[in-house]
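Re: your question about Exodeoxyribonuclease III

S., sorry for the slow reply, the queue was backed up all week. Below is exactly what I fed in.
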Amino acid sequence: MKIATFNINGIKARLPRLIEWLEETQPDVACLQELKSSDETMPTTEIEAAGYGFLYHGQKGFNGVAILAKGTQPVETQRGLAGEDEDEQSRYLEADVDGVRVASIYLPNGNPQPGPKFDYKLRWMARLRERAKFLLASEIPTILTGDYNVIPHDDDVWDARVMATDALMQPESRDGWFRLLGDGWTDALRSRRPGGQVWTFWDYQAGGWQRDHGFRIDHLLLSPALADRLVDAGVDKDHRGREKASDHAPTWAVLA
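Result:
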């Protein structure tokens, strides 16, 4: 079972690249982030024509998450996170697909920091951890995938000094990440590429892609039941170099 996460950076703008990637790599489940589309304007027909059931939580112009499943329809289990009833940002979607609980996550960026956006990021991480604890306690085989907007280690970025003041690398952001992992989750890509130096994002600015100035912020976290089934994990890096590509590359894990 191949499960992938892909921050598409505008599903309508990148639709040809998305369909191309689905056809070439055939993931069983694909979790998308940053759709930037309302539910009413989602390209449902095109996704279904590619052979995928399509579950989405959209938001006009911003955010938005989705779960695609090859040959079947994901069964929604939760939309959004508890803890802040006033939070209307579309950043969390959870569903069952073929016996696996899958979450698509678009964690807040948090810049500029310090400030209200960074405070929101940290609160959101705490809310995610509470949901993740519930899923672990339920012993449901679960994978939490998405754009976490956290660079966990210094070797997850081309130059840690350049990003030192960014919200993605602040001690509080990393503390939230490692508290989550400490509850019992396995970082799929890190477990297969422990030496770091694997990027999932290259900025459009300053020749980030051309100079390979990237970092790793797209993650797949596995519950113990799925960690035992992990076969491999990687990044479809070549898709970042294609015409009108997202600034993220698809990241995936294969489970026995």
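The radius of gyration is 17 Å. The chain has a mean pLDDT of 98.

Happy to talk it through on Thursday.
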